[in-house]
């Protein structure tokens, strides 16, 4: 129940942000989103029921404790696969085609009588709901959360995963997430001082974003590599 509640709360907050923020677009929308995130973090730090800056501890385990962490990891992997398949199903349906049409030419999309505003709001809600769902799973696993775990650096890391893995694809961000979880562990084998590991990781992530933006904008998994495109090619051939 708490996991679904977390997803629902994230969706409601995203709608509250999306409605006024959609008056702007592009870089201004990004700035508005970052501003909303920073504002929420400061609000959480000063609310008593969220534990303030100290965070929330003693969060109960989601599954029976005797199952162990391995069972919970298996549950999270299953949930991640289910979410990926859900997103894939949405993207390949009528709603997904409407999103693609709006992205390609929003003015033409609106000229056809379609409401781009509410599609954008629903996208905010869907993405935030998935993030809230993941955040709730995270909280029940570590049983402790604080606002510092969700600072702007975390958002930058997630964005890097998407850019490196592949924009406009279903599995690209998954591959990017796995890769960027492995890389920091690989850096530790360099036996560098702890004070250097953090900055080095930041430089590595920034470098990866720049490299992929200029040399391979589509990421590791190109949009043409999706299953949908392959089926279309086979069907056409």
Keywords:
237 residues, mainly alpha, two-stranded antiparallel ribbon, 10 helices, 2 strands, 71% helix, 2% strand, globular, disordered C terminus
Alpha carbon gyration radius: 20 Å
Strand count, sense and closure of the main sheet? Answer: 2 strands, antiparallel
The average pLDDT is 80
**What is the N-to-C order of secondary-structure elements (H for helix, E for strand)?**
HHEHHHHEHHHH
Biggest sheet, strands in spatial order? 1-2
Helix/strand-derived category reads: mainly alpha
Number of domains: 2
Give the proportion of residues in helices: over 70%
| Number of DSSP-assigned strands | 2
Shape: globular
Strand content: under 5%
Low-pLDDT stretches? 225-237
The number of helical runs is 10
Distance between the termini: 48 Å
Structure commentary:
The termini are far apart. The protein has ten helices and two strands, in the order ααβααααβαααα. The chain folds into two domains: 1-146, no CATH class; 151-237, no CATH class. The longest helix has 27 residues, at 116-142. Strands 1-2 form a two-stranded antiparallel sheet. Mean pLDDT is 80; it is low at 225-237. The protein is mostly helical. The chain is globular.
Write the layout of secondary structure elements.
Layout: H1 2-21, H2 27-45, E1 56-57, H3 68-91, H4 94-104, H5 106-111, H6 116-142, E2 144-145, H7 152-165, H8 172-187, H9 194-215, H10 227-236
Antiparallel strand pairs: 1-2
Produce a short descriptive summary.
The chain is mainly α and 237 residues long.
